């Protein structure tokens, strides 16, 4: 402990020496933390600490550490004793200690000096001072691996907002969605193993699923240890990411063992802490499984409970904060979980219930928890001092002797008040039906408290639903919220629907759709903009949108980034969907009215009111709906790669096939740009899944009706940018979809045009060559098959416009062109071109014209640049351009006499390229098409193979050339020696001179002067024999052939084989996919073949250029009529539902799913059997108890009979004991009495609240049985309290002196003061009147003005609640009322417009505040005509033993909505104070009024027969 004193001397006097960079010592300017209106550095720290950092359990970074070191000493203090006063008690080691509990050497140096002005008595308020804290940073528990947490030593007077700022900004914790305060026994206790497991699993489950903070006492004992072990077990069983549970321990600094190791003025990063339970003595160690520690210091040592006030304040402060998550803003709810516990735990429960905090009591954990659990179901009147005494004697066997009679009274009173607030009390019983898990009990407790909380309208239900969404507990929402107790309108769910979408909670989205939310009503223009504004920053689509906004800012030269609009979204979507689609959201013109009237970035859904709900208010003259809300929402989900949401929304879509294909396209395009490989895989998997959905729906459609299914392929979808399903599938490269039999049948149908598809190819060729055969039955047409004969001209036109005929004619034309071209090159290539050559030129001109037509053909209006890019992307178009350019180059050279021969060479190369173009023609063949695809894939393998081969060829060639030949300067022969000869060697052409055996000097040039011979190798000057090392060249040749011929060539064969095997599986799909391009090309191609195609081009030029007629759309698109399209989409949607149902059935029949279902059922069955065992055990115990009672009664009866027989008669004074189960009778009586008591308590309740309102005075505890004055209560010694109302002219004396009290005349008119009671004469004792309703626990007049009765008047002004048409609204067959209520300044609750009557006045002052003066007489007349509903005592929290409130409640009801008096009343309502609020409020039992006012409303509704 000496280390503590040593470190304590450093601060504050020598703080600057340790941390000189921080300047002046903050302690030299005396101030209290409570004086800080603005905490220093709070704003600086929030900007310097990144909010994206949310890791609480890991070592702090350097910048964060420096920020923490500078911020904490300035804002957080500790407490030190500055005056040593010797205590009568000694330390554990027998040494002298101060009154604060610390040794002398643990004080500051000047603390032991005799002060002048401090006095002799030790006073904490004077002798303990605050100074900068010296213990904070990271705590690491030694011997427990890498368990690291955060800790800080704080003063007990630290404002909670400073601690909350530290946790959220510097420790990097996210604000919690729920606060779980666990309290109970501080010492180790024994729990049943099953109950322990249930508690641990449920606690961590609720914390993990809701994002809660768990707050405990932080020590390694009792309930804190149980919580720590629960968190530890959860972390060990989960991944690192899932295992982050915030567990905060708030402990007393003076009771922490080994706390010296935590002291470090500059912060411990980390501080090593040893957990030593063996030597801790009366102190306690910190629990290693907590993540954060707040150590509360009041300057004392060894005193427990110091942290409780600060913990209570901190929990209350956190519960008042608003957490915004996923568009939902809720006040952070708090729940108290109780295990075991002693007197301190009872105080904690009582304070929690008083503050409105729901509590979950775990029955079976022992002591206080079991006491409350065992009496929780009893009526309050049955909870007596004797019963509590009996329970304590059983459950507190070791410490029962410490309970005095006064303590028993206090415990009884507190337990009565706790049980009286049943809506805040939840008892978790092991084996209770429907409550098998602690997490369910905790959440149900919060919902029960919220449901029973007073509220206006539907605020309560909204709050519950927001909690469920924030916690992502759809199971709780189904069981607790969407019940018959409340009718949800679909529009009420719109704000939480948006929140569920933003926070990616698909189960809630599904639930809301089941509850009737219509996406057409939900998705408005403003909502959609709001959703895109709240895209996840990590989303790729978000970054693309930001890029578009930045580009627009640069384009407009603005300084600010423009606000997001839907045309920005449309711009990005068009990049993803392809330019064949039109913009989904057109850019509004400048003259149009802006669609957004709400500042979207400021919209938030909060508990109070203005929120996302404003998005759904319709404004006249504005576009509130997009064209397809389901499409818009589906795109929003897909661009974020949210699988579950996308599937749920797609199931709602109407144009489902196009939607699935478009989603597949979007995902594939995003996957190309996504950097994260896992996200890319997820996107591609989801894209494939959508493709399978489209295939499944199309398959069902095709089976039902082939013709309608094919219409779905070519139907122009207005919702998806005026594109078609087929076009989307092609853009997305969905080969599985395109290769579907139905799609291929459609393409075949298009390929044959108006011809029947069953015509043989030989018939078509025959008729093409001898067209008069068309007028025979050799060729059949589709119309003739439908019994519609065709005319001669129509038959001719239908035949020659069929794509298959156009294709065959073009093949014939192309072969003729190639034959003629070859003939000219080989036979008829004259200096002067012949007529055949001119024909070739003319033919090529027609080909150029056709390519130009393809380039300029733009039916979709994409523009020349885009069409050119699309044209260039096609490989065959590139080949066409290359062939034409080479031909033009050859033609140019050929026409120049000097370059005639080079021209012929170039034209020969052009001929090769033209021949390669034949491969495209063969792609239509089912036999040759797949092989061409394989060849194209193998070309890629050859390219990579040549790269490897080049390494060996060049290395061997250079080495061979350098060894054999000296200084070869001819470049062409260098290339031959290095590359050409080395390459030929692979194929067996080995140079004869390489081994020196077959060397012939005549075959080479010695000096390299002969241009037709290679240079000779190095030879001997004498005999001209080679002198190069033959052995080396032979070895190099062998190695070269080994690696190239054997290794690389076999590698190439293996690559070809792998490619063949891989492609062969999909060649059919690939061929079917590429077949479409050829069919579409010839579907839109002019019918005449080259060179006759020039006639079609001329016709096209005349129509477009001269006649200005629009281009004919030859693409595979069909615009349907609205009625036909609607019917087609309805049919598609019907089959989509069948498809989804079939998929669900298949999933259920899946073996793995069946195994999982069976396993789940077995688990449920085992759980039910276990519960049944527990229930049966309980029943057996109950029967045994009943049997014991009967045996006891039988024994009493026998004893009575024996005594009577001894006395020779039945004259004994004892009565015959009752026969039967006393416990059963008690239960029945308790149940009946409890129901009656719930309706009306037998005694005043509010007047006995322990804390008197508006003061710090505590009442003497008065249990129900001790309320009547007639009941003897020797212990009763209430405190006295009388407030001094300086602003009141008339009030009774402040003191209770008999002399001043004797001047008061009771039970009569005392001047202007009416001291007569409506209940008759009341007793007066020692000059003080006695409350006629009994004891209250407080003497004096409290905050009331007069002793005795204080008269009040409460008008209850009501009217019927009506619809817009004037009809009265009913609920449960009863009419509903509206009541006039007011909220006065400095008050949080609403009240009836009335109050205390001033002496001599007829109207209360508060009533005069809301009425104009000229209406006061008329209102008095209304009161005279009204009905008196109550006259007498009012249970008021201000009542005391000697002063109480009595009121007259008068009902003023307006039955007619046109009542003149009601209209006049409304016109004269006013507010003399701007903070005064007046309103007509619907009357029900949950209206948030004072409890005593609600009793008056209940009476009024009963008299009028209205709903309550």
Strand order of the largest sheet: 10-5-6-11-9-8-7-14-15-16
Structural class: alpha/beta
Mean pLDDT: 80
Portion in strands: 5-15%
Over the alpha carbons, how many angstroms does the gyration radius reach?
47 Å
Number of helices: 51
Kindly state the number of beta strands.
30
Morphology call: elongated
**What is the end-to-end distance?**
65 Å
Major sheet description: 10 strands, mixed
Range of helix content: 40-55%
Give a structural overview.
The protein is an alpha/beta fold and 1508 residues long. The protein is built from 51 helices and 30 strands. A hairpin with a 2-residue loop joins strand 24 (1370-1371) and strand 25 (1374-1375). The chain starts with a helix and ends with a helix. Mean pLDDT is 80; it is low at 1-60, 591-625 and 1212-1239.
Task: Furnish the topology, listing elements before pairings.
Blueprint: H1 2-8, H2 15-18, H3 42-48, H4 62-75, E1 77-81, E2 86-90, E3 96-98, H5 124-127, E4 128-132, E5 136-141, E6 148-155, H6 160-170, E7 178-184, H7 193-210, E8 212-216, H8 222-237, E9 246-252, E10 268-273, E11 292-297, H9 307-319, E12 322-325, E13 328-331, E14 334-339, H10 343-354, E15 359-362, H11 367-375, H12 385-395, H13 405-420, E16 425-428, H14 438-451, H15 459-471, H16 474-481, H17 494-502, H18 506-514, H19 519-522, H20 525-533, H21 540-556, H22 566-577, H23 629-638, H24 643-650, H25 656-673, H26 677-704, H27 706-714, H28 725-731, H29 735-738, H30 741-752, H31 761-769, H32 782-785, H33 792-800, H34 803-826, H35 835-856, H36 864-873, H37 875-895, H38 900-916, H39 918-922, H40 928-964, H41 971-986, H42 1030-1083, H43 1093-1106, H44 1122-1149, H45 1151-1206, H46 1222-1239, E17 1280-1282, H47 1298-1301, E18 1309-1310, E19 1313-1314, E20 1324-1325, E21 1328-1329, E22 1339-1342, E23 1348-1360, E24 1370-1371, E25 1374-1375, E26 1377-1383, E27 1395-1396, H48 1405-1410, H49 1416-1425, E28 1427-1434, E29 1443-1454, H50 1460-1468, E30 1477-1482, ...
Parallel strand pairs: 5-10, 6-11, 7-8, 7-14, 8-9, 9-11, 14-15, 15-16, 17-22, 23-29
Antiparallel strand pairs: 1-4, 2-3, 5-6, 12-13, 18-19, 20-21, 23-26, 23-27, 24-25, 26-30, 28-29
